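Researcher: Next entry in the queue.
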Amino acid sequence: MSVPDLLYSEVEEDLRTNVRRLLQERSDWPSVLARTESDEPYDLALWRTLAGELGLAALLVPEELGGAGAGAREVAVLAEELGRSVAPVPFLGNLLATAALVECAAVPRVREILPQLADGTQLGSTAIGLGRSPYAAFPDAVRADGGALTGSVGAVVELAFVDYLVVPATDADGPALYLLDTSVPGVTRTPTTPLDLTRRFGALELDSAVGERIASGADAERVLRRALLTAAGVLASEQVGLAQHCLDSTVEYALTRSQFGRPIGSFQAVKHRLADLFTGVSTGRAAARGAADALAREDAEVELSVAVAQAYCSDLVVLAAEEALQLHGGIGMTWEHPAHLHLARAKSSQLAFGTAERHRQRLAELVDLPTP
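Model: Structure for this entry, 372 residues:
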């Protein structure tokens, strides 16, 4: 395993500046809160700006397919900023679909669709439960018979909004991946009441819905595992971005809120909690950057880096959100304050792509440590 580059490049810092500026203008927390209570919980116009005007949905897509030809490091910077603002955009599902389809770009139909996902005119996701870890066995919830897909999958992220799905299925030749247009007959999508109002998912029912096979056998298993690893590794950066925002907003509040004639930030107990959180966020950023760098370089031990990042950042982001809520006191408990948005996103991301405990188990396996 080579030494990772944990520093942000000048290009990555420029990307951060542009994304943060746009999100401050279009996705401030009052706007996010209002949207969660509306009939349009996702800001698809904002996503089209991010994808079409800034080209950010195309970061993982090769240039010859109409993409930016960048990599996981740049996507991770985008994820950090989306995490800071808990932006209600279909980022995660599109990332899953794009990561899988890029690996299947030899298929003509995939080459047609990738540019549409890259410019934001179409949306995609992958028909797996949001809690599935990259280390799980290939899913068998869907069966394929001559291209006709039948089965059900729960907790598919952004399901209600997508135009295409990458569907893991089992057919006569074993594991396979199918590309499915969600407008074909036999596709039923049922929204699920979410914990996180800024990231939606739903239950998928397929009844002989016709899709096109894009990978099979060991290749299908490899593609799905790689897509899940990419999503889990990038999610760690989103978690760090949210944790950093929770820390920053709480420090600002502690410097301005007074009790007993002095700022609450001057109390030793508050100082210690914020100092511990600062240390945790700094450590989490190093772990998340390590995972993004390993993904970008296609490091041979990328699973190790992703497992470390998710094992640490999944718990860190919940701690940061809980500390922010508690240290904001009474105002933090109200619906009119964004603390509940941060905590809900933190908890939902903690469960995505495997729990921290599952990643610790995989980490132990990779370094030959005994597990319970």
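Model: The longest helix spans residues 217-256.
Researcher: Noted, moving on.
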